[in-house]
Write a structure and sequence with these properties.
Strand content: 25-35%
CATH architecture of the largest domain: 3-Layer(aba) Sandwich
Order of helices and strands: EHEEEHEEEHEEEHEHE
CATH topology of the largest domain: Aminopeptidase
Shape: globular
Structural class: alpha+beta
Length: 249
């Protein structure tokens, strides 16, 4: 820290100076969105300031018990990770040999973006889909924060659903902020895996993001998730970085 005094506070609203802060090589455009969503869903936003500027921001989810710290400072990020308690925490830096690596994959959405013919019915999320989508997410992941689904879709976040024989078989989420898009939480029911649904949902989200004005899309995928890594590769996504998940203490 070079002797600088670090003040950490809990933010109850927007974070002053966040729009000018450089906390992440990949996620700077999404930080205000992450802050709003964490607060809307009952999570906590902690802000570290040094010399009047924002040094770090962390966002957490109390139901899924996971958090992320965004900081360019290794020592500041390490402090947040060491104090994570019963939450798993993502960071750009790895501090433990057991930390799981997630590759950051990116693809340009210009005129040369990959094209693909969907093999299954894929459609945008509708408000009345909330209950079946929650059931699907619980079936695959266990605990999910229901508050996150309130008000979806919205201008920044939507889901695309894949159906097989009239049944919800998979869902994938996409966030857009200006010219930036983020794909996350690809979920397919076990009986429908290896049918190409994941690939359909990837290309459908890339097309949706492109039509929304995004010029690049990124996604974080565990390097242990071989299936999702292969799907991303089919969409032309390539590894450009990594983040690390530190398991709960």
């Amino acid at each position: 820290m070079g002797g600088r005094s670090l003040a950490i506070e809990v933010a109850s609203g927007s974070v002053e100076g966040l729009d000018r802060a450089d906390l992440s090589l990949w996620f700077n455009p999404f930080l205000p969105h992450f802050v709003r969503e964490a607060q809307r869903c009952g999570g906590e936003v902690r802000v570290a300031r040094a010399a009047g500027g924002v040094e770090a921001v962390s966002v957490s989810d109390p139901v899924e018990r996971v958090a992320t710290v965004f900081s360019r400072s290794r020592s500041t990020a390490e402090r947040f990770v060491r104090e994570r308690g019963p939450y798993g925490m993502y960071s750009d830096f790895s501090f433990e040999p057991t930390a799981e690596r997630f590759d950051i994959l990116a693809v340009s959405l210009g005129s040369d973006a990959p094209s693909f013919h969907l093999r299954h019915l894929v459609r945008p999320l509708r408000p009345e889909d909330a209950r079946p989508v929650l059931e699907l997410m619980r079936e695959v992941y266990g605990a999910v924060n229901e508050r996150w689904y309130d008000g979806l879709p919205n201008p920044f976040e939507t889901g695309l659903l894949a159906e097989v024989d009239g049944r919800l078989a998979g869902v994938g989420w996409v966030s857009t902020v200006g010219s930036h898009a983020r794909l996350h939480s690809l979920t397919v029911r076990a009986p429908y895996r290896r049918m190409g649904l994941g690939t359909d949902l990837l290309f459908a989200r890339l097309l949706w993001a492109q039509r929304a004005g995004a010029e690049e899309a990124l996604s974080e995928i565990s390097d242990q998730n071989i299936g999702s890594q292969a799907i991303a590769a089919r969409g032309g996504m390539r590894r450009v970085g990594q983040v690390y998940l530190h398991r709960p203490l």
